[in-house]
């Protein structure tokens, strides 16, 4: 059975207002306790969007907000590919075409790309809505080339998330609060040893480099 979050994400009406209305309001929830989450998100995205001839994968891209940002400074044959399971979200993404971007409909648990296909793989503000999310982390690692980078922005368990009723409501909606070491432990289990892990307000950011084989 689809979670409440999945139903929303596949709804054309919700998809149409996601980027302009829902996403800004939802992002503010991550900044409870300070403005740091939005600032760190902006800085990390700017780093990932640096100039160069690179291939980037944006997993669970939704309407392509991050996809377009990540593609903005690519050069030569550089390209950013967004992948999402929601046709409604992808319809919004392709309605705002940008050079060096393309979109694929697919399942993050089984990314339809060869091993080591991308220089950079990102999953921002989405992993907490994906059922059984940890195998997705394995897939992020698999499709990253040796020496490439994996970037994740997702939820983290904090005193706020443990307030009475918050975790229960989150589970009912299909929202997952990750433990502080849940993502980094999974990356290590997948063979990634070099990473920066930053917890800011109600969110966590991981920037990892895939080990050379």
From TrEMBL:
Question: Which Gene3D superfamilies did the record assign?
Answer: Vaccinia Virus protein VP39
Residues forming the Methyltransferase type domain are 57-152
Recite the UniProt keywords alphabetically.
Methyltransferase, Transferase
Single biological process term from Gene Ontology = methylation
Superkingdom field: Bacteria
Name of protein: Class I SAM-dependent methyltransferase
Q: Name one GO molecular function term.
A: methyltransferase activity
The record's Pfam families line, in alphabetical order, gives: Methyltransf_11
């Amino acid at each position: 059975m689809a979670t409440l979050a999945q139903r929303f994400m596949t709804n054309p009406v919700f998809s149409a207002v996601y980027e302009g209305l829902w996403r800004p309001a939802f992002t503010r929830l991550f900044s409870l306790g300070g403005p740091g989450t939005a600032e760190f998100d902006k800085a990390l995205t700017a780093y990932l969007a640096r100039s160069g001839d690179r291939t980037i994968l944006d997993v669970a891209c939704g309407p392509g907000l991050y996809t377009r940002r990540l593609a903005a400074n690519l050069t030569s044959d550089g390209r950013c590919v967004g992948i999402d399971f929601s046709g409604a979200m992808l319809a919004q993404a392709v309605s705002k075409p940008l050079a060096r971007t393309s979109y694929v409909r697919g399942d993050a648990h089984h990314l339809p790309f060869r091993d080591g296909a991308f220089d950079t793989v990102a999953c921002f503000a989405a992993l907490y809505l994906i059922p059984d999310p940890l195998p997705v982390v394995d897939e992020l690692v698999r499709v990253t080339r040796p020496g490439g980078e994996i970037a994740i922005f997702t939820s983290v368990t904090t005193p706020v998330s443990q307030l009475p009723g918050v975790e229960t409501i989150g589970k009912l909606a299909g929202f997952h609060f990750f433990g502080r070491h849940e993502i980094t432990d999974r990356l290590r289990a997948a063979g990634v040893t070099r990473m920066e892990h930053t917890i800011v307000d109600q969110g966590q950011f991981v920037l990892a480099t895939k080990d050379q084989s």
